[in-house]
Amino acid sequence: MKRLLLLAVPLCLTGCFLKDFGTVARPQLDDAEPDRDHVQTIGDVAAEFDNATDLVVSGFGLVTGLNGTGGVTPPGDARTMVFERLKRAQFENPSEVLDSPDCAVVVLTAVIKPGVRRDELVDVEVSLPQGSKVKNLRGGILQPTPLMTFASQGEVRSYLKSNDFGTVSEGNRMLRGHDVVIAKGPLQAALAERDAAAAASDQPLKQAYVWKGGKVLETRAMFLVLKTDQQRYRVAEQVATRLNEAFHGGESPGSKVAAARHKDLVAVTVPPRYRLNRYHFMRVVWAVPLAPPADTGRYMKEWEQKLLEPETTLSAAIRLEALGTPGVPALRNALNSEYPLVRFAAAEALAYQGQTAGAEVLQKAASEHPALQAFALTALAALDDALGMSKLEELLAADEPELRYGAFRALREVDPNGDLVRGQWAGRSFVIHEVPTSGPSLVHLLRQGRAEVVLFGDAPKLVAPFALTAGPNITVTARAGDTVATVSRFS
Question: What is the pTM of this model?
Answer without folding.
Answer: 0.80
